[in-house]
Amino acid sequence: MQSDELKMPAAAMSAAEARQAHLDEAGRLMTVCNSCRYCEGLCAVFPAMEMRRAFGSGDLTYLANLCHNCGACNSDCQFAPPHEFAVNVPKVLAEVRNDSYARYVWPGFMAPLFARNGLVVTLIAALSVAAFLVGFAALTDPAVLFGAQSGPGAFYRILPHNAMVAIFGAAFLWSVLAVAMSCIRFWRDIGEPGSTLRDPQALAGGAHDIATLRYLDGGGMGCANDAEVPDDTRRMYHHLTFYGFALCFAATVVGTLWHYLLGRDAPYPWWDLPVVLGTLGGIGITVGPLGLLAAKLRRDPQLGDASRKGMDVAFIVMLLLTGVTGLALLVLRATPLMGVTLALHLGFVLGFFLTMPYGKFMHGIFRGLALVRYAAERKRHLS
Amino acid sequence: MERTVDFSRPYDVIVAGGGNAALCAAIAARRSGASVAIVEKAPRFYRGGNTRHTRNMRCAHDSATATLSGPYTEEEFYDDLLRVTQGNTTPALAKMMIRKSKDMLTWITEQGVRFQPSLGGTLSLGRTNSFFLGGGRSMLNALYRTAAGLGVHIAYEAEVTDLEMDGPRFVAAEVTTPAGRQRLAGRALVAASGGFEANIDWLKEGWGEIAENFLIRGTPYNRGSLLRTLIGKGMKQIGDPTQCHAVAIDARAPKYDGGIITRLDCVVFGIVVNNRCERFYDEGEDIWPKRYAIWGRLVAAQPDQIAYIVFDARSLQLFMPSLFPPVTGATIEELAGKLGLDPVALRATVDGFNAAVQPGTFDDKILDGCHTEGLSPPKTNWARPIEEAPFYAYPVRPGITFTYLGVEVDEDARVQLAGGGRAENIWAAGEIMAGNVLGRGYAAGIGMTIGSVFGRIAGEGAGSHAKR
């Protein structure tokens, strides 16, 4: 490991050094926190910490991904800055967590994409949108592209169904593979056996904590956004985003089933299941990200990893634009603007798929895994 | 939403201090309809004195609750208090406080404070003590939010440095702020500004020069200026200037504000020697929560006010971790060298102890009776030979939590006059009057009980006085 790092080019060296510095600081803080334990009722991080006396990099990575960054421990901490012990757990765990996305990325040479992630994601999204606009302009009859289309198969007169499936299927499969490989690397490094992933209780416990965002409640009062008056709006907007995303995904799955099993082509009428799911989901990933962006602007920057704000914002904005263009497509699908709107929407969806393994999307995956592990650890600890 | 004190107007009630007692008083007074100003010496982050470092309070209760594992009756609480103070208490006040502590769990919850089951590593307190969710600073933040929401005005970096009196009647406070001295008029004063533990010169008046070697577990702001002013203005003093809540903490801790993480829970698992390598007290006298509060004084009585807890590899995982790692040695002699002790003397003490240990079944969860024979002082529980390398040691010094010398109060928390009678409009709550209940000794969480119960009484009394 050491010699590998020594062979890295200068830029990567400093990233590795920064990563080690973050781990060292997280290790120092966990030693402080484990001597205090006042925060153990706030979330999962501190009970998981108490099951350990020493903190290796895998332990710290696990704890960092367990942290939901609600900030409660910071406003409750008697040793927070300006105290000389300078304990800022939300910030340091955010740094370790963000490092972990790059650390386990697959293929490994993509790691630098996390360094300027906001820019990278923006460029990929822009190129993706541009590709559809240019592609449509070059390959589609302008009369069709700028004419009002209606009835089943309207979209496919602009982009043939098989082409759409080929593009999105390939991007999606690649991303699923890359995410899965990252997960394997993460799971191995935190030192949890594979068998935990076959333990129904652990999976159910983790799923419950993910579905309810149990630990984004600041121990009951909500997030300590400005370290003054906690509120629960981040959790609400995250729920809107998460379930909005899930509904959009469900709409896509149902649409696929309609197409292949029932032989019915999109666009579907407004009352049909794919449209209902997609509309509700679209509202979720529009309103949710707007709320999250507003919360991010209001939030005390000391509670997070300010150096990765670009990654966070790019991910939220991409979801937002996917939602907005999707809703716009619903409204404009019978007008001459449908072709351009479809290009925008497909561009953002493709950008989202492509950047899934290489951006903020990974936070949900690693946190979900960490929560499954926590459920298993708790069970072992209590038995 | 938090509004600062307006020095140009009078307030019904002025509360000096910003910890648990002060906030309970301010909230209670405000709820009774009085206008209230809190004058806190510390800057905003360090507000709240020792409350920042607390984690629980001891309240009587008749049955188990969601966060307490069983009943803790008034009688049992009083017995515990008598035992730790060896009878040095004011029975009527103590019984009244214990009776009112029962209500406190409900009242303080209504003020926004949240509880949780006892923290990991503190199971022995799970029945008697209610733990704050998020610890003392979380508790304090909740009280400040509630106070501010009720319209209590709060000044930070503002210290009451003198009192303007008209006979036994308080008229105004001189408040020293970064902007200079200000006069703040009030119809009643609640003195809840803590003890004088951070005032080393005052500690020296009782302890002599050895107080230089004490560490102060809380903020440097508890200097006792108002206590001194009150005594100077003819209020009646109570308590012994050397009595305080003192524990043995890691000698490497900072001079101030090291808080909970520098405490060491391993005395019972080893031996404790002074810098002459002599043992000086039975390390296994009772379970640690009942004995931790005597070790500060014990170490203060040793040469240079330092001692060393020595134990072996078998005990390393038996107690809560703390901030600093132990000093480690492959042999007792190597350990002694690192500690700056005489290796021959430490070896002799350890050998003597090991030889005196009787056979038994070690169990750290109970008084296991594993003891020494023919050793002075004896070790009466958890005695097992220190023989398995590596060997470990923690250097410890007296860590002062808070002092007991204070002003005398009655059951209304009204301050008594040295010349007889009581002050017309001055109340006291918290550490500044802890000596009324705690003449000596300590029981975990009782400082917060004193603060909350007397704070509420003082606030209600001051509030209704001011409205009269």
Write up what this structure looks like:
Chain B: Residues 12-439 form the FAD-dependent oxidoreductase 2 FAD-binding domain. Chain B: This is Tricarballylate dehydrogenase. The complex is a heterodimer of chains A (383) and B (468). With 383 residues, chain A is mainly alpha-helical. Chain A folds into two domains: 2-103, no CATH class; 108-382, no CATH class. Chain A is built from 15 helices and no strands. The relative contact order of chain A is 0.15. Chain B is of the alpha/beta class. Chain B has two domains: 11-241 and 404-467, 3-Layer(bba) Sandwich (FAD/NAD(P)-binding domain), CATH 3.50.50; 247-399, Alpha-Beta Complex (Flavocytochrome C3, Chain A, domain 1). Helices cover 28% and strands 21% of the residues of chain B. Chain B has helices at residues 20-31, 74-85, 91-110, 135-150, 200-207, 225-232, 288-291, 295-300, 332-339, 343-356, 446-467; strands spanning 11-16, 36-39, 56-58, 115-116, 129-132, 153-155, 159-166, 169-177, 180-191, 215-216, 237-238, 244-250, 271-274, 307-312, 327-329, 391-403, 406-407, 414-416, 422-428. In chain B, strands 1, 2, 6, 7, 8, 9, 18 and 19 form an eight-stranded mixed sheet that branches. In chain B, strands 10, 12, 13, 14, 15 and 16 form a six-stranded mixed sheet that branches. In chain B, strand 1 (11-16), helix 1 and strand 2 (36-39) form a beta-alpha-beta unit. The longest helix of chain B has 22 residues, at 446-467. Chain B is elongated and about 70 Å long. Chain A binds chain B through residues 31-32, 34-42, 47, 50, 53, 72-73, 75-80, 82-85, 219-221, 229, and chain B through 1, 45, 52-53, 55, 114, 116-117, 119-121, 131-138, 141, 145, 254, 257, 259-262, 317, 320-323.
